[in-house]
Amino acid sequence: MSDNVTNSKGEEFGISELATLSKSGKIRIPEFQRSFRWESSDVLALFDSILRGYPIGSVLMWKKPAPAKRVVLGALTIDAPPQSDALWVVDGQQRITSLVNAVSADSGLSDSRFKIVYALESKRFMRASDARNTLAVPLPQLFDIARLIDWLTDNPEARHYASDAQAVTGRLRDFKLPSSVVEQADESVLRDIFDRMNTAGKKLRSAEIFDAIHRANGETSSDDLSIGAIADRLEQSTTFGRIEDAAVYQAVLVRRHPDITRDPHGEFDSERRSVSDFPGEDLSEGYRGAELALERAVDFLVNHAGVPHATFLAYRFLLLVVARFFALYEKPHPRNIELLSRWFWTAASRASELNLNGSTATVRSLAGLIRKNDEDGSIQRLLDLVASPKPLPLPETNLFRANRASSRIVLCALWALRPRNFDTGNPIEPGELASVLTDRDTPTDVALEVLRRERLSDSIRSSAGNRVIVVTNDDTKILDFLLSRQRPPQHDHPAILASHLITNGDLHALKNKAFKIFVTDREKRVLEQVSSFLAARTRADLESTPPLASFDLDDESFDDDIPIGELS
Q1: What is the phi-psi region of residue 506: left when phi exceeds 0, alpha when psi lies from -120 to 50, beta otherwise?
Q2: 72 and 101 in contact (C-beta within 8 Å)?
Q3: Which of 105, 328, 346, 386 is most exposed by smallest CB count within 10 Å?
Q4: Could you list the residue range(s) of the whole structural domain that residue 247 is in?
Q5: Is there a domain that residue 519 lies in?
Q6: How far apart are CA 403 and CA 442, in angstroms?
Q7: What are the pLDDT digits (tens) for 51-70?
């Protein structure tokens, strides 16, 4: 038998024990793990499962030393001393964080997701905000029998339910979370565990696996060296919104080599470095380089391509290809930036025709056209791939779905009109979009309907003619403004209407409740705007020649002494 045998054993932890271990600093969250991302509904479902006796799965921990550090676990912040046998949570962070915080009185005060109560009459767990005028005991009091007795004393009307409450307390305190605890200092073993976890049961995300493989020790000196941290910083430093972790992970890979299907093991080992476009860099430099490439890609998308927010992006592969280009060429020629924008919109429009999609094969083939030390050639190869004698296909405007690529192209075309805010009359800024779209995966919250769907017939119910880009959380304001019931006198009303492709004829149709006429007429103008937008962005009528600097004008037969006027 090998001397390097992994010691893995099954253990069970009660909620009270998990809380004690957490507050003593013995439970640690590796840096590759994202911060707590469950919603209150998830926390509620967890405790409901415990109440019903449903299994909630097991967790995986890695026993190893941990340095002194300030540890953040949900709403709890612990100044943890050094530990010789800390328990690093490899899988199960969301469950452990929820259990520990929900039974802590302080957590609920600072984070409403952990503010859970038990409704005595309906015998179920509820959010505290949903339990107004309901006889309900807070979970921290319910969990501690002594505190429960005090609560019952202070709430004599609840004494009739005392036996049920005590039974729930017993169930919570008897609950044991099954755990597998691994004791092994060899990181390669943990790699294997991660891989096996990713092929059975609840899968880890690719980005989490990648972070885990390369940073599993959890002791790196930088707290911000992770896929999630890169995504968080980009969201904070730009108005583009949060790029999903999977895209950041793929950007790390595609920046270094076009093949993003490669085995993530040993990505920064010497052998892999030799075939990378950045052979000399280590893990830290690879992450930083990817972040910078994404920053430049976002700048291009917002300021050159006209994509104001991540939720407006038609396809992820577009971002990855652009990121690879800006990784290899930090300051490309302005002509190539223009041509890249043409490629971007041609590829977005012809994606279905050319079978370009979100597959790794698409990313690999497109990224492979971008080669080191060949900026002009890289752009020309991209353009050649999407060139077609066929007319540019236009997205459907009669079927708007915010999660569809075609509808996002429509929104970008509408954004090019600089839509104005109904409240202020000023053009909407990207930052305003970002504030409304925080934590959103689609642009639905800024692509609101003028008329409620139930007021429209089936044939026009999903039309883009009924959508406008606004940043209000009150969609009734749209119709109020258009019908002149809520219009500040200082507003430039015609300019606001024009920025949303709304005419006086539309207003007349709305006032007369001719809703079908309003939607169908405006849909025609939306389609015209999309056609005009794509024609201007793709410029298929113009040559796509590279910058003049790429041509060899140093002809041996050229005579520098010939006057310019005689070169005709």
Answers
A1: alpha
A2: no
A3: 105
A4: 224-386
A5: yes
A6: 6
A7: 988 888 888 888 888 899 98
Same domain? For 23 and 137 the reply is yes
- Integer Rg of the chain from CA: 29
Nearest to 379 by CA among 203, 258, 546, 204: 546
The phi and psi torsions of 131 (rounded to 5 degrees) equal -110, 20
Render pLDDT for 207-260 as a digit per residue (tens, 0 to 9): 665 665 555 444 344 556 788 889 989 998 999 999 998 899 999 999 999 998
Return phi, psi of residue 547, to 5°.
Answer: -55, 150
Distance, in Å, from the CA atom of 395 to the CA atom of 210, rounded to the nearest integer, reads 36
Tokens of 273: 């470095």
- Are the C-beta atoms of residues 527 and 501 closer than 8 Å to each other? no
Same domain, 261 and 356: yes
Residue 98: pLDDT band with limits 50, 70, 90: very high
Beta strands (DSSP E) in 309-449 are 447-449
> If you search the block for the tokens 């880890």, which residue do you land on?
204
Angle, helices 316-328 vs 360-367, to 10°: value is 30
State which H helix or E strand residue 124 sits in: strand 124-127
Rounded to two decimals, the pTM is 0.64
- How far, in Å, CA of 380 to CA of 336, rounded? 9
Return the minimum-mean-pLDDT range out of 46-50, 340-344, 539-543: 539-543
